[in-house]
Amino acid sequence: MELFLRGVAVYLFLLVLFRILGKRSLAETTTFDFVLLLIIGEATQQALLGNDFSVTNALVLITVLMGIDIVFAKLKGRYKPLDNILEGAPLILVDHGKPLKKRMKEARVDSEDIMEAARLTHGLERMHQIKYAVLERDGQISIIPDSSA
Q1: Which residue of 6, 16, 37, 135 is most buried, as measured by CB atoms within 10 A?
Q2: Are 60 and 3 in contact (CB under 8 A)?
Q3: Does the pTM of the predicted model rise above 0.90?
């Protein structure tokens, strides 16, 4: 039972942690971020397994973690508010060429990130050419060009 509770506690902690960090932190993983994730994985292993490194214990723990993930996936499908809490919702960052600075700051996205997405996807050069820039749930920035600009 202790193993089950450890698995649930660590899963929920990491879920909350990555929701607080925001979408962009996962979408733009750098080499340092990757190393940090490896370190987190090692620390998590110690928290989850304690001193019992048996294969049986590891298999039970993997089953618990995957089970929690499956339960959340099914609940998200049924309850839209839970889906928004766990996965977030798309966020408009630019509205008719005007950057929404407060939202950009909260999402830790700057004008250069938006313009990079605009250049890569549509070849746009200026902010006023963007009708909407949307920070998607997966951390990517979608650009809808302004056809009148």
Answers
A1: 135
A2: yes
A3: no
